[in-house]
Amino acid sequence: MNTPNDSMPTPSARASATPPAVAPGSAPAPGARRTRRRWRAVAGTAVAAGMIAVSGCAGPAATGTSIDYWLWESLQLPGYQACADAFQEENPDIQIRITQYGWGDYWQKLTAGLVAGAGPDVFTDHLTKYPEFVTRDVILPLDDFAATADFDPTGFQEGLADLWVGQDGKQYGMPKDFDTIALFYDNAMLEEAGMTPEDLEGLTWNPEDGGTFEEVIAHLSIDANGVRGDEEGFDPNNVEVYGLASGGSGGGGHGQTQWSWLAGATGWEYTNADVWGDEYNYDDPRLQATLEWYFGLVDKGFLPSFERVGTSPNPAQQLGSGQAALSPDGSWTIASYGRLEGIDLGIASVPSGPIGHPVSMYNGLGDSISAQTDTPEEAAEWVAFLGSDACQVLIGQEGVVFPARPAGTQAAIDAFNERGVDVTPFTNLVENDYTVLFPVTTNGADVLSILNPVMDGIYIGSREVSSLTEVNAEINSLLE
Amino acid sequence: MAITSPGVAHSAPNGRTSVDARRRRPDDTKLALLFILPAVIGLVVFYFWPLARGIWLSFTSWDLLSPSQLIGFANYQRMFADPVFWNAVQVTLWYVVLNIGIQTIVALVIAVLMQRLTQSTFVRSLILAPFLVSNVVAALVFFWILDFQLGIGNQMLEWIGLDRIGFFTSEEWAIPTIALVNVWRHMGYTALLIFAGLQAIPANLYEAARVDGASETRMFTGITLPLLRPILGLVLIISVIGSFQVFDTVSVTTGGGPVNASRVLQVYIYENAFAQFDFGYASALSVAMLAILVVVTFFQYRITRAGQTDLN
User: Fold this and answer.
1) Hey, of B190, B286, B301, which one would you mutate to test binding to chain A, going by the most A CBs within 10 A of its CB?
2) Which pLDDT score is estimated for B84?
3) Which single residue of A205, A217, B106, B121 has CA 20 to 30 Å from B221?
């Protein structure tokens, strides 16, 4: 969805940026506006294309030692501002200017900025995006600069640094944080169901009968007559409380919060290699059985239908309004769930699967250096600082995300603990190496644009899970 | 006023003025060109150049970040073999038929009511109110009203004993809902255009008909509709072009989903250009849209004979 609100940094985020966020100049309108009575809008795309080429972001060029740094998460802005202040104290000759855009606008502004030669020097990067930046020579390898040449992948949580190694073996991103999936729930709702948080520990799941996990979500589902999902006479077409909250079909992000943890627990992996696979595995029977079970929950009345949640589902809201009992979601949403009113929040691990233990998707963000920067050495110094214990502990103390360095992760765990939130269901999986990696391949955007409508169709029920075999072939033909 | 000066000169009693006028005429052309120049520059820079560039881009492969490459007709070949494109054409046509069909009938009724029933400027201007709401706001408001769970619209359906409807979340309802939201927003404006046309029909025709004992319906079919034809034709051409370009309502509400149910051409173009940065292919799709509009408008113009009037 492209709501205009996406583009607005939250007021708090704005206020907390000590130097005013750099205005991006006259960036092009994100979409061709519909103007009735005008022929010229016919060529809307062409016009917009032309505009991007000529205007783009006209931020002041980085002269001397001023580094532009972009990120998208407004909740993280205070932490990174603190990092920038600490960095500037050590390096008084380098000034860091932080700009934050909402996720939706971020990539458009970034692309426009890169085209116009007015992008940031350093920016927060995502695993679905950076492969294309590498193939188009838009970002620089960290290996090439003094400050980051001695990059040590072992200084980070295991595996995170590898995600940012390009096909040429060079390091294209400094790991900044990681995220995993767990189940959020409301203690009061458990109590009502005669359950305790202990009942959510050690759950098992399999794609055939759903295991004890399905028993739990069945018990937590309640229909309009107050009948629970595991009781006689439960009406799946008239449900008041769903056992599982819905984050949509997951087609737009490889089911990261929706079903990646289920599919992963069957031993399934996205591609034929940890990183840079050239074949996706959406034709795997284990994945298809998982999706069959997961989307089959709609008919059982344990998961809200597509019709109900629409194209912009909000699982936190479903939990907060008492419409769902368990909400699988990412660690980056802990703060959002913490702010839900009238909820006695608890977090449980995702269930263990046929391979004998729970699995979460393991995704991480990184910081990359733009190839357009005039001051790559200084940019690398900033990136090195972003990847240091000093900065990542500062970020961890904010209690928003899990920084990539173990010391930073610990700081975040402590910060969450202080607020009374036990986040070990998120971190345990990483410690035990029970993770499946986010797929890093070329053509990330194209793959998702094919996958998204298909997954929506499966969720709605107008498409068979088995049709993914054909779709997988189509996706793989893109990667050849 | 350079244009009217020859006429003024002609009416002067002095015999020499016509010679002067003849001598001055070349100056007028230059002056006129000078006056037209800003508009021409605007047209060339903001219309012809982007149009030409867009058409040229449709023969290239360009992702913004690396230089564009000429690839001939490959984008067009891909387009003709692209099921999503054909689906988008179908979805767009379905939208246009619903949107224009309902909108024109409703607007016509409103316009006739405005003319025959009320003289009040206040009531007449009220009808235009929805048009003053921005498209995005109108779409968002209806998005909330018709929300499956929280929307008051669905609440009301339940009160009168009907099942809830996934207006924006089911494949069958997405396009009709979006079409009706836009009917609501644009019907007042369309009615106003038609109303202006109605004002141009001489009142004595109605008087004569009334003397002959014609009913209100007879007058509508016998006088109003035939004499309104050129205006109606114009309104249709304008609103059909606008309707084909539907984008914001879809983008704000369904984003093209569920599945591809509301993925209209403009949305598909936008996604290719700004989500996948495939500007070459997006340009080819835009050219296809241009071609469709040219053809549709040409036939509309011919069929409605919008250039001629039956008043004389």
Assistant:
1) B286
2) 92
3) B121
CB distance from A4 to chain B under 8 Å?
A: yes
| Fold category of A4-178+365-415 in CATH | D-Maltodextrin-Binding Protein; domain 2 (3.40.190)
The CATH label, of 2.60.40.10, 3.90.850.10, 3.40.190.10, 3.30.420.380, for the domain at A181-362+437-479 is 3.40.190.10
pLDDT at residue A465 greater than cutoff 70: yes
Å between A103 CA and nearest CA of chain B: 13
For the ranges A110-119, A138-147, B82-91, B102-111, the lowest mean pLDDT is seen at A110-119
- Please report, for chain A, the start and end positions of each structural domain, with discontinuous segments joined by +: 4-178+365-415, 181-362+437-479
> What is the C-alpha to C-alpha distance for residues A88 and A100, in angstroms, rounded to an integer?
19
Contact B65 A32 (CB under 8 A): no
Instruction: Give the SS3 label for residue A67.
Output: strand
Q: Looking at residue A311, what is its pLDDT? A: 77
- Check CB contact under 8 Å for B51 and A43: yes
Per-residue pLDDT tens over the stretch A225-250:
999 999 999 999 999 999 999 999 99
Comparing A4-178+365-415 with A181-362+437-479, is the CATH topology the same? yes
Q: Which value does ipTM take for this structure?
A: 0.76
Mean pLDDT in chain A? Answer: 85
Closest residue of A to B275, CA-based?
Answer: A445
| Phi, psi angles (nearest 5°) of residue A244 | -125, 135
Determine what percent of chain B is predicted with pLDDT higher than 70.
90
Contact B257 A456 (CB under 8 A): yes
Condensed to tens digits (0 to 9), the pLDDT of residues B29-68 reads 888 889 999 999 999 999 999 999 999 999 999 887 778 8
B107, B100, B98: which is closest to B131 by C-alpha?
B107
Nearest-CA neighbor of A341 among A183, A184, A186, A181? Answer: A186
Distance of alpha carbon B194 from alpha carbon A405, whole angstroms: 68
The structural domains of chain B, ordered by start, are: 5-57 (no CATH), 74-304 (1.10.3720.10)
What single letter denotes the amino acid at residue A57? Answer: C
Q: Which residues contact residue B110 at a Cβ distance below 8 angstroms, ignoring those fewer than 6 apart? A: B127, B187, B188, B191
User: For the segment B297-311, what is each residue's pLDDT rounded down to a tens digit?
Assistant: 998 888 887 667 776
CA distance B66 to chain A (A): 7
Residue by residue, DSSP assigns chain B as -TTTHHHHHHHSS-TTHHHHHHHHHHHHHHHHHHHHHHHHHHHIIIIIHHHHHHHHHTTEE--SSS--EE-TTHHHHHHHT-HHHHHHHHHHHHHHHHHHHHHHHHHHHHHHHHHHH---HHHHHHTTHHHHS-HHHHHHHHHHHT-TTT-HHHHHHHHTTPPP--TTTSTTTHHHHHHHHHHHHHHHHHHHHHHHHHHTS-HHHHHHHHHTT--HHHHIIIIIHHHHHHHHHHHHHHHHHHHHT--HHHHHHTTT-STTTT--HHHHHHIIIIIS--HHHHHHHHHHHHHHHHHHHHHHHHHHTTT--S--
> What is the average pLDDT score of chain B?
86
Interchain CB distance below 8 Å, B50 and A457: no
CA atoms within 13 A on the CB side of B309: 11
Can you give the pLDDT at residue A47? 41
